[in-house]
Design goal:
By secondary structure, the protein is an alpha/beta fold. It has four helices and eight strands; from the N terminus they run E-H-E-E-E-E-H-E-H-E-H-E. Helix 1 links the parallel strand 1 and strand 2. The longest helix is centred in the C-terminal third of the chain and has 14 residues. It is globular. The structure holds pyrazine-2-carboxylic acid and zinc ion. Zinc ion (ZN) binds next to loops.
Length: about 210
């Protein structure tokens, strides 16, 4: 894969999704093996001309938290005004250590950090749109204005924020590769297989090998 990953510094960008403490060991919503991707992404970032980071960034009473609902537990599903929403443990609350990037991630080279999920009533898995599928984050405009047409995605979690971002990016007309070796999944009730299938069907390139 390292030979196949030919990066064009002008039109390619690396999107590093939600590499934050709450998704790592000991965090509120720990993703198994999350730390393993840190050194991989550290090696990847200098190979790209443009790097964008995303940060899950919730207000304390965010409606994606089970704690914001009566008699609901994490990982249950509720219907909010825009459709089905999985409920999560409180995580990535704005300004808390859990919302900070993993200390091993060198954030200096990032040209842009997109914070998402800060509107109380709507979650935002995707880096492009909130879960209502209608409210944009502004990332597509940024990428287009910078002449970026090809995106390489890595980070957490493969089956939520990475796949939602990849699917939206395809819908918006970007070429998209997900670097699976640099992603880890939550895998809730088959969500990983479902996400991989959806991404493949949408024309996302799933890069399996070492990078
Ligand atoms: C994520 C669940 C809730 C993610 C964020 O980064 O994949 N998953 N918030
Ligand atoms: Zn979240």
């Amino acid at each position: 894969m390292s030979d196949a990953l030919m990066i064009d510094a002008d039109r390619d960008a690396l999107l590093v999704i939600d590499l934050q403490n709450d998704f790592c060991s000991g965090g509120a919503l720990a993703v198994s093996g999350a730390e393993e991707v840190v050194p991989i992404i550290e090696r990847l970032m200098p190979r790209f001309g443009r790097v964008v980071l995303t940060q899950d960034w919730h207000c304390p009473d965010h409606h994606s938290f089970a704690s914001a609902h009566q008699a609901r537990a994490p990982f249950e599903t509720v219907t909010l005004y825009y459709g089905e929403q999985t409920l999560w443990p409180d995580h990535c609350v704005q300004g808390t250590p859990g919302a900070a990037f993993h200390a091993g991630l060198t954030t200096d080279r990032a040209e842009l950090v997109i914070r998402k999920g800060f509107h109380r009533g709507v979650d935002s898995y995707s880096a492009f749109y909130e879960n209502d599928r209608a409210t944009p984050t502004g990332l597509a405009g940024y990428l287009r204005e910078r002449g970026i047409s090809r995106l390489f995605l890595c980070g957490l979690a493969t089956d939520f924020c990475v796949s939602y971002s990849a699917l939206d990016a395809r819908r918006l007309g970007f070429e998209v590769t997900v670097l699976l070796e640099a992603c880890r999944a939550i895998d809730l009730a088959g969500s990983l297989q479902a996400a991989l299938t959806q991404m493949r069907e949408a024309g996302v390139v799933l890069a399996e090998g070492s990078i």
